[in-house]
Amino acid sequence: MPGPAGHVTIVGMPEAASLPVDDPRPPRKLYRSSDGRWLGGVARGLAGHLGLPVIWVRLAFVGLFMANGLGALLYAAFWFWVPLGVGGVGEQKQPLVGTATAPDGRRRLLARRPEKGQIVALLLMVIVSMVFVGSVNLGSAAKAYLLPAVLVAAGVALVWRQADNARRARWVEVGRRRRTLTLLRAAGGVLLVTAGVSAIFVLQGSAAHLGAVLQAALVVLVGITLLAGPYLVRMTQDLSEERLMRIRAQERAEVAAHVHDSVLHTLTLIQRNADNGNEVRRLARAQERDLRTWLYKPEGTGKDEADEPDTVAEAVRRSAAEVEDKHGVPIEVVIVGDCALDERTGAQMQAAREAMVNAAKYGGEGGAVQVYAEVEGRTVFVSVRDRGPGFDLDSIPADRMGVRESIIGRMERNGGTARLRSVPGGGTEVELEMERAEKTS
Amino acid sequence: MSDATETNGTAGGAETAGAGAAGGGGGRHVRVVLVDDHRMFRTGVQAEIGQTAETGVEVVGEAADVDQAVTVITATRPEVVLLDVHLPGGGGVEVLRRCAALTADTERPVRFLALSVSDAAEDVIGVIRGGARGYVTKTITGTDLVDSIFRVQEGDAVFSPRLAGFVLDAFASTDAPPVDEDLDRLTQREREVLRLIARGYAYKEIAKQLFISVKTVESHVSAVLRKLQLSNRHELTRWATARRLV
Predict the structure, then answer these.
(1) Residues B189, B219: Cα–Cα separation, whole Å
(2) Which of A370, A430, A432 to probe by mutation at the B interface, max B CB count within 10 Å?
(3) For A113-148, how does the pLDDT look when each residue is reduced to its tens digit (9 = 90+)?
(4) Does the pTM exceed 0.80?
């Protein structure tokens, strides 16, 4: 006795399935841009926020700078208060990191190299400030303090940029090698600030006490570190642990939502098609494949079905999945290595797909179709093998173009080779070999 | 991924076993312990392979987590353990670690055959490096499973096409200089054998193709397994680290 159609109740199913997946658009918030910035990313962030060209904002800052250095103050304030974010509004999803396919076929994250523009900008700033200092008459007393002030400012800027980088590194995961560099930079910043402050001190005329004061300051500093250090360490540890837990919980909720949703869907379909064995098998296989990609893929997403495949492995997997779904014959795929698709390998993939279709159509009763793809050096090799009845290539009438044109012809036209081995009663194997095109990117 | 071909045991393998050892349940007998945290699954496997008279497999114990598994295996001393990879208490790798002494025993070794629903590289390579003699997925059919169990009992390795693919992948980057360090590296012949396994050939078919005996194929496969467990070359380590295996 069938229940009400389309209504499935599963006792004891957790509530996680009903988690809100997409929350409403976040309110517009000002971020400094970490991408393509020259100094602190303030101008870029502002430009993104206001929807203005970046150059306008930069010019405005320079203009304001001329007005008694107001621009610099403003910039500093922005730098201080506005958090570093990704892009401006409108380019929020711009990826910070690019993925590139390494020669060995695995995907790697690439951190962007710092742009030359930043160095140019810093030099420009120095020159502008020199001109500014040279042209503006401040009076000799103030002028004496200028150099130390610049020193302090430079030190602060160094350390703050550093903090930004540390923050960015959390997303980008910059390699460990750079840690020494960051330490050096921090030390440099501290040195600059100390020098500046000391200079101001000296200028004030209390040079005699400098040593004693520095010592006292050091003692206080050490004391504070000793007192507050453990708390600080504990706090950061707690914080990172908490963050980890939150990420885990989020991930779990996501998995639960995905699994429940798709499994429920499949179960419903299976209930409706319980009598149709083929359909049930097809559904189960599709579901299994889906879950597998979702659970075991290193990249985790596995949801980019819409766009075209751009590597050999992806193309083979895609074709196999499609043929499997269409013909209901399980296709087992083993892939060794990977490389980007080019024109030749693209043709090879089409030939391979044709071979899979043939194998599924004519050799499907013998069990799973086996697909093996290997990228070794410049050669891409694909073998499609079934355990069906097999056939004799010579006995196929000349007007049947399937194998001859779609597989053998296509491979030869593109400079590859196709071999067909078929033993009547012992299955068929199609071997496709192709050299990759010279230019790979 | 699929039923029939997950072991090499398929058509060719079964015939081999039939030719070599006595076929059916005839002369052979093996004592097996089932380790899996899903009771339903244990019951299913038991029902499928547990008819000792027909299959020659006798299930002498079951366990649902790592501690139980170690206790049961030590107490019953089976010849083959069917080991799930994901277990409460540390997983199959932990069981392997704690039973290392039993596996190393030369007189009556306990051999492990991993039986998992996952065919992810990290799971497969993880338990193989832990010392399992084979790896099959849960979609395997009853007859193939029985065949794999006997294969493992005889000391052979059960390599699925996927497993062969993973191994080839792991050793692929070290392909350039083929001769030096030949103790650690796969020989040309071993690579050939692995490649054919990855293409879905059964041991017997490989033997025919390469004009060698089935026994030679098996020894090549065992050599690969040995290298996989013992090799500490940088590439493999790095590869494993990149996939969060170690």
Answers:
(1) 11
(2) A370
(3) 445 566 677 677 777 767 766 666 656 666 677 777
(4) no
